[in-house]
Write a structure and sequence with these properties.
alpha/beta, 2 domains, 8-stranded mixed sheet, 12 helices, globular, single chain, Spore Coat Polysaccharide Biosynthesis Protein SpsA, Chain A
Amino acid sequence: MGVWLSVFLVSSLLFLINYFIYPLVVIVLAQFKKTPKHNIEDQAFTKTVSFIVAAYNEEAVIEDKIKNCLEIDYPQDLLEFIIVSDGSDDTTPEIVKKYQNKGIISLHENQRRGKSNALNRAVDVAKGEIVVFSDANNDYAKDSIKQLVASFSDANVGCVTGSKKIYASSDRQSSKGDGLYWKYESKIKLAESTLGSITAADGEILALRKDLFEPINPKLINDDAAITVNILRKGYRVIYNPDAIAYEEASKDLVDDFFVKVRMTTGGFQTIVTEFLFLLNPFKLYSWAFLTHKVLRWLVPYFLILIALSNIMLLEYSLMRFLLVGQIVFYLLAFTGWMKRSNTEMPTLLYIPMYFVVMNIALFWGSIKYFLGNKTVNWRKASR
């Protein structure tokens, strides 16, 4: 019984560290450190910016994206837009070309070779001092580029990521879950940024100094993780600016969100293996943050399995019987939520367990895919 008790305690502790203890510690520590805030009203914006969008088969959203780009508040003579639509076999390239007379640069080749390769091609032709990466399905706040560029007033900052906000929508199953998740992640990122560097930038709204960019290995799935590591390796900070905001719709169906998380997790394990010496160096503070925030998160499904198994093996203790009942109730609520997920108004009591379990199944499957050797850079697109 001693072994099973140890398994239960260790697995429970690691789960609590990732979801509760680490966030609490960094948020509290951040309260004791003040960071200068760069007011965009006091800035004279002189840096040139290249705004890059990778758009594979995005005919449903690309025109709205272009219109959003053209409304961004930044000196127009310092801003260029590049949309790379490699591999698209819908009307995305044609839609982009309609806006060439408005300064939109269209890059397209027929072969689909992954997002990292597309970004590399775009950066090759980019002329800006600052490169901003964006997705095709999000909307930037008008001042978002100014907010990102202002963060580079600190010479130690090499990369900035902004805040991802989810539009509230009753007909999109992931809206509530994604919204809550990104609010939770935002608080952690802000604390990490205040203390030094965040553990990973978000590719939906990411800016970096062009002279620090290194071509991304086309075989890598998580391009934003590769950029983060490259910037940190050069000795620069990767920070979070919550005032630089991008909005997007959640996935229409949780199944789409599931496969997004599967891909991200597969890419996460790929990043660990390819950057093992840098990411898990016990002598670097960043490595401990990455281990606690990211690696433990990807391992949570295994902790949950071990918690359940060890709990069953310890039923001679009354507390363990109580805890097992709690787990059974939680998973029954999750299953009920899954069966009712098409309902427009699902009670929070069902939604949160359901979303949590579905996302952790995705994390589990993503890790299995990696170890089975499935590391394709081409992914299943979510419906728009």
